[in-house]
Amino acid sequence: MELDSLLSLVDRAQEMARRYDAAYFEVRAQLDVSDGLFMRNGVVEAFSLDSTAGISVRMLVNGGLGFASTNRPDSLSSMIEEAYKNALAASKVGKKVALSRESFGRAEFSSPYRVDPMEVPIDEKVEYMKSVDSPAAERGIAARVLWLLSSRSVTHFVNSEGAEVEGDVRRVTLMVRLTHISGAGATQEFTQPGGSGGWEIVDGWRLDEKVAYLSDSMKGRLEKGVPAPRGVKMDVIVGPQVAGLIAHESTGHPYEADRILGREAAQAGESFVKPYMLGQRIGSPAVTVMDDPTIPGSYGFYLYDHEGVRARPRALMREGLINEFLHNRETAAEMGVSSNAAARANRFDREPIVRMANTYIAPGDMSVEELIEGVSEGVYLKRFMEWNIDDRRYNQRYVGSEAYAIRGGRLAEPVLNPVLEVTTPAFYSSVDAVAKDLEFEAATCGKGDPGQGVPVWTGGPSVRLRGVGLGGA
Amino acid sequence: MFHEESIGLAERILQLAQARGADDVAVHVVSNRARQVRFSNSSVDVVKTWIETLVEVQIALDRRVAVVSTTSPPEERSLEGFIERAFERLKRVPARDIYAPLPEGPFDYPVIQGTYDPRLEEAQEELVDAAKEGIDSALAEGARRVAGVVRSYAGHECLLTSGGAEVCERFSRVNMEVRALVDDEATGHGVTCSRSLDGLDPKRAGSEAGRDAVLASRVVDLPAGRYNAAFWWSAMTTLLGVFGSLASGLRALMQMTPYVDKLGQKVGTELVTIADDPLIDGGYASRSFDLEGLPTRRNVIIEGGVLKTLLHNRLTAAHFRVRSTANAGWVFPNPWFLTMSPGDRTEEEILEDLGRGVVVRNATYLRFQNYRTGDFSAVIRDGVFLVEGGEIKGEVRGLRLSENVLHLLSNVYAVSRETRQMTHWWAEFGPPVVTPVIAVRDVAFTAATA
Fold first, then answer.
1. B27 and B157 assigned to the same domain
2. Is residue A34 within 8 angstroms of chain B, CB to CB?
3. CA separation, residue A115 to residues A35, A200, B296, B383 (Å)
4. Contact A265 B402 (CB under 8 A)
């Protein structure tokens, strides 16, 4: 659908929705376009071009919430009627939904760019990918898979309370997955830089250097790696990539208010965090965890959420204390607070639900070298491959890919697959120092049903843990 | 949208692409009306409807391949522009080193019974009723609160290719997941899925979830270690999905599967026979064609523990110098509907034979440390029970499945005679399945060290 004709549907849908006796309605038109290049071992396997465009409506009728969407202009009135009937049906058997009071107006936002990533010639993109692939190929890495994705998301949101928000965000990300095989051994790595803005952001990634580094690291550990310590307590330093994932999984997710209230119980799960825990200590004073959608150039960037609420940085954990949950208007009303603009929908036909944006452990003021110098015997778990966390976000596991022994305050030989399997309070309580080497990686955070993958940054500096157990099988 | 309109739309796109010089074109049009009822805390949260048409096109030009998909409405002007944009870009993509044309027809498609129930086109009230029944059934077993989802899909899909494929089929599906909770950690999970409304069994899903949640509220200690383990329906949905999906030919080319270089070799015990079988009448994921136009077929992936085939589209088949197995998605060849052959044990016998072992009802969040070696871990939940003397003693908290695909397959020692058709919200790796319960020796479970 052309953008103009899509946006023209918003007014028509709004008019139609007003004819129903809904206490509240919102209409969102959304166009998501992307092009992707999938390269395996230097050869383009396929090129993809996707366009997802349509319109959705959410209605509140007698406290029941109904949602409907369509990508067919001739189904607009059916869609509105379906949303109304759905809300009515929910009101008869469902809970009474209320929405927090917010101030609305007209607003626009976009991600500034110099070169539109959707307009960069494909051959230029292929050359860029080859420049990233080459360092790994030259080092004999057996399998190299790269997926470059350029995208644009345009939204036009209105609601019955006077909100009108237009958003236009362009993004670029490149996923790299490497497999090195030597004799009977195999090891893998992945990395994914990404951001919002123009094609120019790839220059800042220096991804060819990173791929060269990762390739050398993989070869080094297959040649010289020793088994990781098991079943011992020692000091562990996690690198920025690991710290960022931990911030996302064990602070971001359990602080999502819809999980806390049980709305995601059937699938993604609930949370070990309860409303009464606000203000309680969960970590050491060295740890502050932020979630900030407003960071310019970030992969999870937005300035207004998909309920029209203005975004702001959110301090989820401040100096070890649980400080703030992530809210949309429904959870905010239930907890008696204002929304902090965490409602996101990944495409036109998805309900906006509580999501993270750019979640990170705030940097400290030490260098990584200083962190290492303070460890007499331990492990530097610099990067990971495997991870998971239970659905209450309490018990988690991170298995290192690139990792080193630390002895006498110095990095020693590579260690193979160290396992950090730990509870959330134990992790955050054991942090004694945080470095200043803050880094971000792009990721697609999954949640909801139907599933909604939304772009996020996970970030962190190197973080030192005192006396944690290394486990594993 | 009627299927005549879908075929008409596909024809217009095919002509547009051929007029621009495409060597091969496949057009897939899906028209769907879907509904969902989500509930939590024993109450409905939201009711949803989707009315959508999806158009997907694969275009090949001089050994270059583009996959184009749009849920934009089928307006002539925008479609033309979209195809044009795809061509502009495709011409600048380097050619593939290995290419094969789309399969040439004529094709004789299998007729699969029981895949469409027109009542699922308009089943809002029935879904709400199913939600209520699932909730009530779980509460009746002793659950304190209940969450879940009921979903329905009904519509048709059509495929038209330059190789001569022209096929449409109607489809309907309905499924439900119920998660019952006695407290924050004592949970149970029930699933029911069908191609028809009559096949949905909310009572069973709710009751099973409720019963397990109650069982899980009795907690026993079991340290991390290696135990015999039985993987129940929901856990098997995830595991069987993984076992089957790792057979994708493209995964093998990417070194992203432990099946690399293992064709013809033992990868499991003789009890392990896994097939991709989209021809089952009434099967939740049965279908008659792949996206390159080939009629689907039953492919035995592992037979008696021996890896028999990988799954291919025409392009991965060309790499391996074999024929396509009719598993073409758009880029990755993948299984459609995985089945594991039943064994001869009742579920009670499996419990009795476990000794001091662990029953795992559900597995999610499965992540690989190394796809090539098959090392992974997964979160286990909704009933992780210690079994002794054939009886469930209580739930073990805090364990994690930390295993290897080949080790699991090579230690299967019992398979149930009952199988179930299952689908799973956590289906990152695989399609719906028909699965038995299996028992495996020497399974590794880990736990947090602090």
1. yes
2. no
3. 15, 6, 45, 53
4. no
